[in-house]
Amino acid sequence: MLTRWMIPATQLRTQHEDGQWLVFDDATGEMWQVTQGVADVLESLDEGWQPGAPLPPRLQPFNLAPADASALVADLVRQGLVVDAVAAKAFPRPRRRRWYILTWSIWRVPALSPGHWRLMVTVLAAAAVASAAILWTDLPVFPGQGRIAFLAQSFRGALLTPVVSKRSFGGLLACWVLLSAVHELAHAFTLTSRTGKPVEVGLRLMFGWPRPFANVTALVTLARRSDRIPVLLAGSFAEFAAWLVLLAALGERVVALGLPFVLLGPIVLLANLVPLMRNDGYLLLQELTGDRDLMRTARRAAHRAFVVADPQVGRPTRWWLPWYGLFELALLPATVVLLGLFLGVLVSYPTAGVVSGFVGGAAVLSSRLRGIDTEAGEWTDAHAA
Ligand SMILES: [Zn+2]
């Protein structure tokens, strides 16, 4: 039977306001960034054009020879962007699964109307401001010490003695679960209010470590950056607002939860917005720079600047990129070293802990360095022009 190339019905193509084309598969959650030429080829296939047939008007500027058109479509088939209409059901593409991540979807957040979303944001913001005002006036004022100084002292105390008693552990855990739920729901509702489509929220276990999630990959179907950025910011700000409300509502009972609760709000903001791993802050930085694979670009820049100088490539356009790549590369190995030290102290063999920490950290670092692909392998054969 003759093959007939087609675009999966679940595929959404969006041109962002900076000109980039993003393709999103609504069924698998996969995402691709393609050139204008590839977007034109996909559009033409969607309109019924097949390689070998005369070029439709939108493809004529590219001067594609029939052999080039076939090669290009074959590459798009390998990438999963184009499927064979006949064999599409017979050969589903295997989805990449990572053994150390377990995903548990709990709820499909329904679509919220923009009006309801604005109402929710207004109520939460008003509650947060009122709570902050209550907390501010309730702060104990000691003679000769201002409120700011008292806050700084409390934070310092919480950092120096981050002891959680068995009694307060349950309460702290409950607060963390509540605040995380607010965080993920805020991402989800902000997105559904813009796309009109439900969003999956749930729990992800990474190496057994629980982390709540909201699947906001459909973010790329929003053409305007001013629509995408609020979705990324919503989580942290809603969580911080909920923390303020909780703090004000608990009043004197905060003491029973222990000082670590005082740190929860600021830590949440830092952990989510400082972009040293794939968190909200990282996704924001990708939006601000317009680079959809910023981590790889930064690692390559760090490799060129600090490991192997490549005279062929000029200086990076952003001066901070090599430094950002360096910090990101070093963060996990450094954590392994500290973990070794911590475990060593715990079993009263600090030297052995430090040594194994360094061995582990060096192994992680070298594997990360080897993993940097220094070749410019970005869509080399997927350009239509
Ligand atoms: Zn988030």
User: Distance N terminus to C terminus?
Assistant: 31 Å
Class inferred from helices and paired strands? mainly alpha
- Give a list of the ligands: zinc ion
Estimate percent helicity: 40-55%
For the secondary structure, the number of strands is 8
Using the CA coordinates, give the radius of gyration: 25 Å
How many domains make up the coordinates? Answer: 3
| Strand order across the largest sheet | 2-3-4
Total number of helical segments? 12
State the assembly state of the protein chains.
single chain
Q: What is the molecular shape? A: globular
Order of helices and strands: EEEEHHEEHHHEEHHHHHHH
Residue runs with pLDDT of under 50 for 5 or more positions: 376-385
**Quick check: average pLDDT?**
84
Main sheet: strands, sense, barrel: 3 strands, antiparallel
Portion of residues in beta strands equals 5-15%
